[in-house]
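Here is an idea for our session: we take a single protein and study its fold together. To get us started, please write out a protein record for me. Start from the sequence, derive the backbone structure tokens from it, and show both lines together. Go ahead whenever you are ready, and we will take it from there:
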Amino acid sequence: MPLRTVVRIAASRALLGAGLALAFGGATAGAQVIEGTGKPAVPADSNELRAVTDSLAGKSGKLRMRLFSRNRTMSISILERLFGERAVSTPGIHPIQDSTVSQPVKLITLLPFSEKFGGKVGDYRLGYWPAEKRGARNEAYENPEGFIEVTPDNVDQPVSEHFKLGDFVTHNQSSVWPKYIVLREELIDKLELVLADLKARGVKTDGVRVMSGFRTPEYNAEGVGPRRGGRARDSRHQFGDAADIIIDANGDGRMDDLNHDGKSNSKDNQVILDAVNRVETTHPDLVGGFGVYRATRQHGPFVHIDVRGNRARWTGALPRLSKSRKKGAAKPGTKPRAGKPAAAGRSTR
């Protein structure tokens, strides 16, 4: 093979590795560094190249979508190669077009946040994010980059092995289409890692259900305060990085008996908390909040998981989780008000 051809192939592969790292924020698998540039280089071996492109599936290996916004710093040429030129300019869901990628990952190009007018996108009511009214208190509370458009045709689109777009749609405006959601890949990756951890310990996880995913600010405001639902005004659900879930493998609509004590109650949440703690220890970049909520007349026990960027633990009027409670948690026997933090960090359920 002519030397010029070898150099051109190596440069193309190096560009692919650098572009994926920039586009999706992670180190490329098996990547080296181009001498004198500080940029990642993809090894020439095709199996290693496939390992790099397979990183699109996230830490869990189970992501089936990646998000793109023009506000992000990334290599457009790499995305055009993988998904086609139209994908980077047209909001929507775009299948991968590069045969080197073995995972069925799709690119979701976001509708820019600037398309929201008067608290709405089209006929769909969103309301106003906290930063639109008083400015963001830190980077985690800035306005979202954009929205995923959800239609009757794509509502069942998988975003990972266990979750689909429709799992994260706000629970109102049922007759209004299209709908719009905010969702972060890190949340889905963390949820999949937690499920994998539980499965490895014998828990049946195929029945996982999202009780509440993305909440529009308008919808979230309806339940702010302990007497109206216990939601926080700055709830992480508005930023697409929080989900309330149950494990319901038997399909009865309630949390399964995860600790095998013969009962389905809030104590089963401890099993999920242990898994979350293990995942956060292994992947500190996915650290976030964990809240536990006991059954009411409206619902059974459930847990809140998010990736806010700092560790937070709290209970929503729940009995103590375990005897080995962390320092700073609520004292045994006490029942904090709904949504009040029981450990380090501020609850923004």
